[in-house]
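Let us work through a complete example step by step.
Step 1: write down the sequence.
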Amino acid sequence: MSQNPDTLHGARAELLAAAKRSEGWTRPVPPVDGSAHPASVLVLFGKLDSTPAQTDATTMAADLDVLLQRRAATLSSHPGQVSFPGGRAEDADADAVATALREAEEETGLDPAGVEILATLAEIPLAASNHMVTPVLGWWRSPSRVAAVDHAETVDVFRVPVAQLLDPKTRFTSTIHRMGRTWKGPAFDVDGTIVWGFTAMVLDALFDAAGWTMPWDPSAERPVEL
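Step 2: predict the structure and record it as tokens.
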């Protein structure tokens, strides 16, 4: 996707432009029923630790990483999967942003004060757990130390270089066979850690909308075990 270099300067500007196109940005997904629970996830991009200090205008996609975590295998919802920090909204949360920041702090220990919120993206139904999920797009202005806080919920927290996710060699199409049907979606193999499902779908759509995607082979399919 080509973008006008005269109006966009750096990865942050490209993310902001992508957010403006977030309506209908993801692949078609199964609907949820009317009693679906609201939830939020924090899609947080920050500069790689090894990247010298740069202005936002000179920080490119290849200079970034994204915060992910691995859910505990004992959880009833999406056990063992790689995900963004986030979870179900609580009554005390003012909005989707508050939910995403609260959950991220509880799960990874990040300091919300260092996060600049760029946008809230369009809700996405997540039928497997009956949630309506709002991705909250963040720019990690002042990164803080992160680690799994409650191992009953999260077993690992890590920052994945965006350049590695964009590398065509890491990308494939996941296939899941369930109830006589085959479900396919984008996926990433990060040194043996498989990112698939909702998280991969959001990353794939966001990379496309930001103009970051490199050509890859969707015909390369691999089954994913639930």
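Step 3: interpret the result. The CA atoms of residues 62 and 163 lie 5 Å apart.
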